[in-house]
Amino acid sequence: LTPVCSGSPYKMGRVIRSQRKGRGSVFKSHNTHRKGAAKHRVLDAAERHHYIKGVVKEIIHDPGRGAPLAKVVFRDPVRYKLQKVLTVAAEGTYSGQFVYCGKKATLSVGNTVPLGEMPEGTIVCNVESKAGDRGTLARCSGDYVIVVAHNPDAGITRIKLPSGSKKVVSSSCRATIGQVAGGGRTEKPMLKAGRAYWAAKAKRNSWPKVRGVAMNPVEHPHGGGNHQHIGHASTVSRWAPPGQKVGLIAARRTGRLRGTSVVKADKE
Predict the structure, then answer these.
(1) Which position among 30, 84, 127, 262 has the lowest Cβ density within 10 Å, counted as fewest Cβ atoms?
(2) CA dist., res. 261 & res. 68, Å (int)
(3) Which residues, including other chains, have CB under 8 Å from residue 229's CB and lie 6 or more apart?
């Protein structure tokens, strides 16, 4: 904070909540009970050229994650040992199921195949954005990506993300067939504060959240006044300093979306 001096344009204020986040302290993620990072197998020759069989040992809940995880066990293709992989479970996966990963694997739910081997219109999840990164896209419960188009000459594939935006990735990026299990999770109403409390407790200190207008002026730019009102535009510059940067940051537009949305036609 800037020290106050005579005739200074700056006002002293408290370090507000958004400034305190990211500093550790009470805002650290609650990851003690988590089961681990959900990833595909490490990309090896078996997956690049052929396929490898694994068995789903169990489907488990991961605290703080909406999607269930699957513990899959593969036999190591080189050494006498087992490879245990924790991955996002596709809808319809069950314990004891055989799953196949690799270029030559069949197109059935739960299998992991490079995008280039799939027909257009295939629904997939846990998609890699760069080949070998072990899965970054469409990993939340109920999410899926649609394979839109292939360009075999350039070795790229166009996909439609859960947000609706299109993305171009390498055709050698792997994805699991099907959508992520646990869909419709947000449709169920919370009904009581206790449910929201436990849901947030598994993730981080983010609930309950006091509104800025309910605070005093020293604690928030929206605070104070004889009625709960912001008192100025809720939009704020992208370059506003921390402590002022609250509300609708760098908003292109505000208000309700009105009228019909016009979908732009694809170039393909």
Answers:
(1) 262
(2) 34
(3) 213
Tell me the one-letter amino acid at 63: P
Structure letter (DSSP) for residue 264: P
Contact 190, 196 (CB under 8 A): yes
Nearest to 181 by CA among 72, 64, 69: 69
Report the alpha-carbon distance of residue 89 to residue 158 in Å, rounded. 24
Contact criterion met (CB below 8 Å) for 178 and 125: yes
Q: Which of 164, 207, 246, 188 is nearest to 30 (CA)?
A: 207
Strand partners, 53: 100
Q: What is the pLDDT along the chain (268 residues), one digit of tens a residue?
A: 555 555 556 566 789 999 999 888 999 999 999 999 999 999 999 999 999 999 999 999 999 999 999 999 999 999 999 999 999 999 999 999 999 999 999 999 999 999 999 999 999 999 999 999 999 999 999 999 999 999 999 999 999 999 999 999 999 999 999 999 999 999 999 999 999 999 999 999 999 999 999 999 999 999 999 999 999 999 999 999 999 999 999 999 999 988 877 666 665 5
